[in-house]
Automatic annotation (TrEMBL):
Keyword Nucleotide-binding: yes
GO molecular function terms attached to this record: biotin--[biotin carboxyl-carrier protein] ligase activity
Functional description taken from the UniProt entry: Acts both as a biotin--[acetyl-CoA-carboxylase] ligase and a repressor.
Lineage: superkingdom: Bacteria
Parent-protein start and end of this portion: 70 to 323 of 327
Entry similarity comment: Belongs to the biotin--protein ligase family.
Record key words, sorted: ATP-binding, Biotin, DNA-binding, Ligase, Nucleotide-binding, Repressor, Transcription, Transcription regulation
Catalytic reactions on record: biotin + L-lysyl-[protein] + ATP = N(6)-biotinyl-L-lysyl-[protein] + AMP + diphosphate + H(+)
Enzyme class, UniProt record, top EC level: ligase
Name the UniProt record assigns to this protein: Bifunctional ligase/repressor BirA
Gene (UniProt): birA
Length: 254
């Protein structure tokens, strides 16, 4: 609370001990609540990841939250919003002395292992956004035994990576502060240059081989950059360079 210095992000908080999913709850209340309202829970019984996956949300050890946003932007621009969340988490971690990398467009990793995932959902009508719910899950103080065996090689927690207990309240306040800092220019003038710069400077993908998975199709190439629109610039094996829009793909480092 004391560390929070935002004007509207996180000024209205719904706090739950146990809930199905903070994204589900946020979507239920989004229409009647103010922009910047945050739903947060100690424990989620059916935490949701991208592509219909489950999300492990061990009780009291993570930050499981959803932020309600109401930008007056073209729905097509919303894919970029996720980069604001990723940049906010990366910077907030840096503020407490933890180096991380952003795996475009929605993961934050440490040493190649995922510590944060973001699930952005939108509700729109015609060409108007009613609301956006950005769900952010951070593995803060989870221990090895909290992870299912199939995730051990892919995911980790801040505690495991840093070998120390992390103060969740302080980290949460830092994330909300950073989020607002990067969100205001987007809201006011469609400017996400700061978030993109952070995603570029701390990218886990640039100059690496990547697989772009689009439906049934898998294409391998090299990630070159994140452009000013927030798209991933990839050179494929045939030499063709494409700008990849986050809405349509899943990226795997290879
Ligand atoms: C992913 O990496 O697949 C996205 C994971 C998103 C998890 C967070 S935890 C808080 C919010 N509530 C959910 O059910 N999911 C998101």
């Amino acid at each position: 609370e004391n560390d929070l210095n935002t004007s509207f992000i996180g000024r209205n908080i719904y706090y739950f001990n146990t809930i199905s999913s903070t994204n589900i709850k946020a979507k239920e209340i989004a229409l009647k609540e103010l922009e910047g309202t945050v739903v947060i829970a100690e424990d989620q019984t059916t935490g949701k990841g991208r592509l219909g996956r489950d999300w492990v949300s061990s009780k009291g050890r993570g930050i499981w939250m959803s932020i309600i946003l109401k930008p007056e932007a073209d729905p097509i621009k919303v894919a970029k919003i996720t980069l604001i969340g990723a940049a906010a988490v990366n910077k907030a971690l840096e503020d407490i002395g933890i180096k991380s990398q952003i795996k475009w467009p929605n993961d934050v990793v440490i040493n190649g292992k995922k510590i944060c995932g973001i699930l952005t959902e939108m509700n729109c009508e015609l060409n108007m956004i009613n609301y956006v719910v950005m769900g952010i899950g951070i593995n803060v103080n989870l221990q090895e035994e909290d992870f299912p065996k199939n995730l051990i090689d892919k995911a980790t927690s801040l505690k495991i990576a840093e070998k120390r207990e992390i103060n969740r309240k302080k980290l949460l306040a830092n994330i909300l502060n950073r989020f607002e800092e990067f969100y205001i220019p987007f809201k006011n003038s469609d400017d996400i240059s700061k978030a993109i710069e952070i995603c570029r400077e701390n990218s886990a993908l640039i100059n690496k081989e990547v697989s772009i998975i689009k439906g049934e199709e898998i294409k391998t190439g090299k990630a070159l950059d994140i452009n000013e629109e927030g798209k991933l610039v990839v050179m494929f094996e045939n030499g063709i360079v494409e700008n990849i829009f986050s809405g349509e793909v899943s990226v795997r480092g290879v």
